[in-house]
Backbone:
């Protein structure tokens, strides 16, 4: 965690999904950067996200990168409705298809609250 | 001076092994000695070095970095911090030579004593706060690209397996390959191997091994007095889209990465894809081989696996690809692995590939990185004209 990303994780502790939004041009972006990638303005802030989006890509990981991680698990890229995207965990017994609607849910992982997504019922 | 007055005159590879007893600096130095001997040069002839590494070597004030001028006992006119090695280091070296900063540049690197057992290599999983909590590593980034491609072109899965089997079988008969003697493999063997991350099985994915690799670069004028036929730089191109393995790679952005670099390289060389005799593509996984055929202009989108099968990418095919067995079977030594591609390209062009020698290998393509990495580079090498 850095000064740049603390706002994301403190919101996550409250189970609120936020993302950087540029105060000058309105661009949504992720991961957090020092300046907006559209207009290079440093005038951006964390704004709440609806937590709703669609699966951009998804896969099943059968081999863990570190010991102690349970496999298999689902990994994906989710495109949020506000026009930003993130790498994330996909929860649920079956792997969501590309373009499936998903919503945010929260996992406790290594003492931290992290966002994950599940298929919208 | 022109680009094709820059020549690779020496190649040095240490034994490539699953686990080495040495450390990374030792294998980088071993490879350097071998490359200088191959070039018929002494270390005192070196006046430029590109030995960047997250340890060893380089110029960073970082633990594990080495002072190469002290190590070689020579003052240097130029030092490179090329990231990674392979083609980017060659381009940097060519720049140093063309601007008169150095006449003889050593590119060396590799890894040893760094791989543990049981998990994926540490360098494939950056400790980033938006990556680590979700369990992503290098192969998963490539997999998320592949899943979208296969949703569009499902037939490519079988072709991927054929590609993996072919390159692994090329490595199987190379005594220097880490996987020498393993196989032969069929496409069905690849498809039924243990899954790692969908769509990839263990046999679709490259190795993580240890060893060093080095090349020596100098002027064509100097090269003419050295033992081997000089192999000159005909063209090169690079693309950098984004830092790798943090923000996830998006299929629509990265599937064609390398196309602009290829246009640049082929344009500089005055050549086209059909002129390439041997292709040392960056085979981090089976689908990346097909993707590079598409991106570099050998065939159209979605045609990569069919192109590979119809053309033949084995030693007896029309476009021998990864002629040492590639990253899938020969070796993958971390950030030093791209130099393996230069080394094999040089051996083929100058005719020193031994039992692996491809007839009429006059133009070689050497590549680095790929779609999931979000950067790419390639060089075209050939005999001096």
Residues:
């Amino acid at each position: 965690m850095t000064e740049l990303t603390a706002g994301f994780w403190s919101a996550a502790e409250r189970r609120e999904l936020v993302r950087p939004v540029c105060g000058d041009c309105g661009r949504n972006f992720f991961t957090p950067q020092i300046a907006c990638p559209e207009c290079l303005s440093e005038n951006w802030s964390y704004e709440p996200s609806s937590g709703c989006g669609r699966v951009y890509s998804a896969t099943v990981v059968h081999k863990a990168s570190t010991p102690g991680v349970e496999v298999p698990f689902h990994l994906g890229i989710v495109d949020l409705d506000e026009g930003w995207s993130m790498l994330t965990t996909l929860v649920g017994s079956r792997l969501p298809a590309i373009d499936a609607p998903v919503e945010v849910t929260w996992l406790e992982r290594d003492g931290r609250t992290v966002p994950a997504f599940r298929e919208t019922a | 001076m022109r680009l094709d007055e820059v020549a690779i005159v020496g190649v040095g590879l240490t034994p490539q092994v699953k686990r080495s007893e040495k450390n990374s600096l030792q294998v980088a130095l071993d490879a350097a000695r071998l490359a200088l001997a191959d070039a018929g040069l002494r270390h005192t002839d070196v006046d430029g070095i590109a030995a960047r590494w997250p340890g060893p070597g380089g110029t960073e004030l970082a633990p594990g970095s080495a002072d190469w001028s002290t190590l070689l006992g020579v003052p240097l006119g130029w030092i490179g911090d090329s990231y990674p090695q392979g083609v980017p280091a060659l381009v940097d070296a060519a720049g140093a030579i063309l601007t008169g900063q150095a006449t003889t540049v050593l590119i060396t690197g590799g890894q040893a004593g760094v791989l543990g057992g049981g998990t994926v290599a540490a360098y494939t999983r950056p400790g980033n706060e938006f990556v680590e909590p979700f369990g992503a590593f290098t192969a998963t980034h490539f997999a998320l690209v592949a899943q979208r491609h296969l949703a569009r072109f499902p037939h490519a899965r079988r072709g991927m397996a054929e590609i993996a089997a072919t390159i692994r079988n090329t490595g199987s008969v190379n005594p220097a390959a880490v996987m020498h003697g393993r196989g032969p493999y069929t496409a069905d063997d690849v498809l039924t191997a243990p899954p790692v991350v969908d769509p990839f099985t263990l046999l679709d994915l490259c190795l993580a091994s240890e060893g060093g690799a080095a090349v020596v670069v100098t002027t064509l004028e100097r090269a003419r007095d050295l033992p081997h036929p000089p192999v000159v730089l005909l063209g090169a191109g690079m693309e950098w889209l984004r830092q790798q393995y943090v923000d996830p790679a998006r299929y629509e952005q990265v599937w064609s990465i390398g196309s602009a670099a290829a246009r640049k390289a082929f344009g500089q060389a005055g050549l086209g894809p059909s002129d390439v005799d041997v292709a040392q593509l960056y085979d981090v996984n089976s689908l990346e081989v097909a993707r590079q055929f598409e991106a570099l202009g050998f065939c159209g989108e979605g045609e990569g696996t069919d192109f590979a099968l119809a053309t033949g990418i084995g030693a007896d095919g029309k476009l021998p690809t990864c002629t040492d067995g590639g990253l899938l079977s020969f070796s993958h030594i971390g950030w030093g692995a791209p130099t393996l591609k230069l080394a094999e390209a040089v051996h083929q062009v100058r005719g020193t590939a031994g039992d692996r020698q491809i007839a009429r290998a006059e133009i070689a393509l050497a590549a680095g990185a790929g779609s999931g990495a979000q950067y790419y580079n390639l060089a075209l090498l050939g005999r001096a004209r």
Q: What stands out?
A: The CA atoms of residues 105 and 215 of chain B lie 8 Å apart.
